[in-house]
Structures are given as structure tokens and as C-alpha cells.
Amino acid sequence: MMFNKLRRARPAGPAKTPPIIVVSGLPRSGTSMMMKMLSEGGLEVVTDAIRAADEDNPNGYFEFEPVKRLAQGQDEWLKEAGGKLVKVISALLEHLPAGYDYRVVFMEREIKEILASQQKMLKRRSEASRSTDDELEAQFREHLRVTKYWLARQPNMSVRYVDYNQLMADPDANCQAVADYLAVPLDVSRMLRVPNEGLYRNRAPRK
User: Residue 104's domain spans which residues?
Assistant: First the structure.
């Protein structure tokens, strides 16, 4: 998996609307869990439910197929997304048009846990990675470095980084911090029902 160098957000979009709430991060970093948490908390989700829940994501993926076509400029659906929640993987963030405001909840997780989770998912699907773990780890770390640099320079995006590992260790404090950042009415008690130790199946060794 390769990530291209990020470019400046492309100007597009209508007049200002309520911020679009975006959950982002690397695949297998906890984005689906955060989507579930915020959905339970009361946010309306932009999703088509085409990708059903499975063993890898028992609570569902919360994906929206048109997101995958952002790079082709297919972003008309964003006109109706103000104040709603949508999942956009980190590699596609640069394709979000600059004419909207975004509040981004960016999931971070120990890279080795992400790699272990991906390998198990590929094995279940009888697929094989084209890169070694060391190669993927280097690519992921560089991608995150470039993405964070880019995000910090986008005037229409605010970002809250959420550590998946810390969230699982202390969900109360982390759920409340996310709710405070988004500054919208959320039922934190319902959010807290989502983090499930039983689904935390790929753990990095304790330091």
C-alpha cells in the first residue's frame, strides 16, 4: 500500500454550512468503533450500509461508497452532510473540498497492532499483503507524519487526535474529551457502552 504526497485542499463547495464531522485514521485504527460511539451518542451518520458487519468489525463499518470517489471530484453529497458524521480514511482527507468546515476525529493506534489486525483480516479473506510488515510500518509512519503536517495547515479543519489504546484503557475520560471537542449534544453514557475489551484482539506488547 502506497500513499501519495498530499497536496493543498482543492477549492470547491457552496457557502458555509455547519461543520461536517469526520472520523479518520489508518485502516484498522479504531475508526469504525469511533463511528459507532458517535452514532450511539446521537450524531446522524452518512452511510449506505452496503458493507455489512462481519468478524473483523462486528459493530459494522459505517462506510459510504461515494467517499471512495472523492479523488475523482465526486463530492456533491457533501452539500447535505453539514452537522453529520462520515468516515473518511486518512489517505482521502486531502480530497475533501475546501469550501466546507470540518471537525476531524483522527484515530491513532500502535502501528504493530494495526499491522496484526490487517494480517488477520487478510488471512480470513485468503488474501496476501504485497509488502512486508517492516515496509508497511515505514509507509504508515511516513503517511501519518505527512498527513499531520498537512492537517495542521488547513484553515477549514480542526483536528482532535484520539489514541485508541488510551481510549480502551480509560474510555470515560476519552469519550468526554471527544464530546467536548465536537461541542454538540452527545449522550456520553451511550458512547461508553461501545468500547469492548472483548473486541480488542490485537495488542502490542506493554512497554
Answer: 20-188
